[in-house]
Design brief:
The complex is a heterodimer of chains A (546) and B (307). Chain A is built from 19 helices and two strands. Chain A has 546 residues and is mainly α. Chain A has three domains: 65 residues; 131 residues; 223 residues, MetI-like fold (Orthogonal Bundle), CATH 1.10.3720.10. The two termini of chain A are 42 Å apart. Chain B is α/β, with parallel strands linked by helices and 307 residues long. Chain B has a six-stranded mixed sheet, sandwiched between helices. The chains are: A mainly alpha (546), B alpha/beta (307). The structure holds adenosine-5'-triphosphate (ATP) and magnesium ion (MG). The site of adenosine-5'-triphosphate has 14 residues of chain B, from strand 2, helix 3 and helix 11.
Amino acid sequence: MIFAHMKFFSKIKYPILKAIDVSGLTFLSPVVRLCYGEEPRVQMKKISQWILIPICAIILFIFLWAYGSTVVKTKSGSVPGPLETLKAGESISKFGNYEKAKEEAYTLTGPERDEALKKAQARLGKMDPIVKAATDQVGGAKAQYAEVIKKRTSGMTSRRDALKKSYSANQSARKASLAALADTLTPGNETAYENFMKEVKDHTDKTDLEKEELATLAKEIKEIEDEKSDDVAKALFAQTRAAEERQFLQKQIDQLTTQNKGLKIETAQAKIQEDARVLLTLTGPEAVKAAGKIAKARSRLVKTEESVYAGPKTLGYQIKRSILCVFAGFLIGAFIAIPIGILCGLNSTFMAAMTPFIAIFKPVSPIVWLPICLIIASAVVPSPDDSAFMDWLWEDAWILNHYDINPAFIASAITVALCSLWATLANTALGVASIDKDHLNVARVLKLGFWPRLFKIVIPSALPLIFAGLRISLGVGWMVLIAAELLSSSEGIGKFVWDQFNNGASDSFAKLFVVVFVVGIIGLLLDRIMIVFQRLVSFEGSPTAI
Amino acid sequence: MSSLELMPDPAALRRSVEISNLIKEYPNPYGEDFRVVENFNLNIREGEFISLIGHSGCGKSTVLTMLAGLNEISGGGIIVGNKEIDSPGPDRAVVFQSPCLMPWMNSFQNVMLGVKNVYPHATKAERRQIVEHSLAVVGLADSMKKYPAEMSGGMQQRVGIARAIALQPKVLLLDEPFGRLDSLTRMELQDVIIEILAREKLTAMIVTHDVDEAVFMADRCVMMSNGPKAGVGEILGIDFARPRNREVVYQDPKFFEYREHLLAFLEQRAHLKSSTRVFSDGDTMGYTDKKGLELESHATSKATSVA
Ligand SMILES: Nc1ncnc2c1ncn2[C@@H]1O[C@H](COP(=O)(O)OP(=O)(O)OP(=O)(O)O)[C@@H](O)[C@H]1O
Ligand SMILES: [Mg+2]
């Protein structure tokens, strides 16, 4: 409707629709068609089905989640609702930003450093009153809330005190009467003893009852006292935020001054120069000593020059490392699975030979593979100091050098490969085995040799299924990876989960919920990417995945 | 002198086909092997065009695929040129009923597929030229970059024909090549084939269900007897001058005579079959019989439309 009359827009209509189709975002195509005024009724119906209804479902889910989180209580506090989760996500990203700023600060030099320092100091100067105000706010809110609690519980407390008093009076009275009764007992008089026993039992029963009543009352009071106040929580949150920012600023200033790389280098160089000048005047053993000192200082200087900021890992870094690891494992798996799958599809004898291995290894859980891979990887993978390859990985390799490729990483990647390759293998074998017989006949008539036949006919016609398998593999790999990282404490999302599980911070439970969404969304994106690839290699009438 | 040197051995250029005592048996897990073709004898002269007709299931495709080398020979032999065949090869190009193009390649690449093997010593430019020429011959000079999914069935079949002739085969084998096309496209492609064969002097065999096609295209029309144990039933020489013009041929009284003859042969075989059906395997016969009647009715309706 809007675009229908404009020439440019009407030209790009079908390219847009095709791009949508290839990327698998088919829910968008009715929107585009509606914009072009194509059958508005039909499009509206599709939009309401594929866009409005999912949105409603999401809203409903958020409400149910918000309600459910207030009902379920656990030892680590109540289950985080949507708001808490959002806040946790915010605090994760804030932490990431702080770390990034600190990293930058570490390498700044010259006037830029001075400027950054000035800015940080100015801000820090303002922080003290803010933190103090936040602390006061917390104190005020707590006091206010304590007041409220006191008011609410005062009736109960006084009742409890009164009851306690009267019960202890009752109890001592009963004890006294029992003691008196005991004195009147005549040995051998069974009925008298029986009566006495009854009295005693009566006394203990009553005492128990009274105790229980007091305990129930105390519990009720405690419950009220334990109730969290939204005001206090808010004040605490603001206070934590402010304290965090102040701490960050202090650390940033450290990175800009005492810890700063440029400054460290400068002072070291000045010192070396000074020492060198002194050395020129020295002879004998003193010269030896001074020269040795200078040599040591020089090598320290080289290390400083090469150093990078070493801070705690942020979720962003861990996500990147996880994605790197899943692709590493996925590629290893693909490199194993595709050739074997092709051989299986081509040759039934080879397939027969492989079947037992596939059948036995396929169901093995990542939990079993991981320790095996870890042991092997730590035995085989040399440390970066004494292996040129590992040294290359750590120092120069393309994007890998920032990611500390260690045995845990390699073990996780291999575990991913071992768990994910089966889908690719099965689909590749199926794809190769189910090539159109006519196409093979064509190859025979054309007398194609083995390699042209493989690359021109067998592989292209199996590609849609190979990619379908790869897509499943990547999905499986992503699921396996998080578990593998958690168990091997290889830096990554799994490690983040483990850290949050182990640290008792008030929002770590909510951060786990954030991870659920992060992992889900990344998994979705990976799947989408594979769908695009799969569509690109598909042809009309190509077979679909198993 | 030099031109003589370039001339290949004349024997290798021979394009005749001799089929002698050809037998085909398919294994039958529940009894004796199923002998589809028995004592099939046929000599095809160089440059001759044979059409092969017969009831559905009698074994036409079987004979053709054996000639192509795609189907194992159970007995007897086939000699092409002066060599007994035992495997498929580019000297016997096949055009299948479905075009069998690779969907992931465009027309150019589909035709190029075999050219690389057949002309291992040709330069890239020469190969390119061969492919472009073949596509131009079938009228697809403009559609070299098109993928099969973007082309009509007729165009796809043209690519199939181009792929076959690009191999410069001795023998061209066509198995119901126009079976899935509408009659207009069918006629166009018939003309394309006839033209190519006349120019390249190829020996050819076409399997068809269309009696008009069999008469119009071929020099001799081979009628197969009914299976099992089918062989050559009758051979009809078609005596029209080449190049053939469709209008002229279709007006010729001889054309109707030939047609009637072929139809009569098929009909008679159909009756024969229905009377022998009682004694033989009911299922196979019932199926082929139905298809056989279809062939007749198809031919009759064609006749009325032409007449
Ligand atoms: N692979 C096979 N195994 C067993 N029997 C087969 C096989 N292929 C074909 N046949 C049988 O051989 C007979 C001849 O088959 P063929 O395909 O040659 O018939 P046709 O004359 O080409 O039929 P149509 O006109 O329908 O194409 C048929 O009865 C068929 O059932
Ligand atoms: Mg057939």
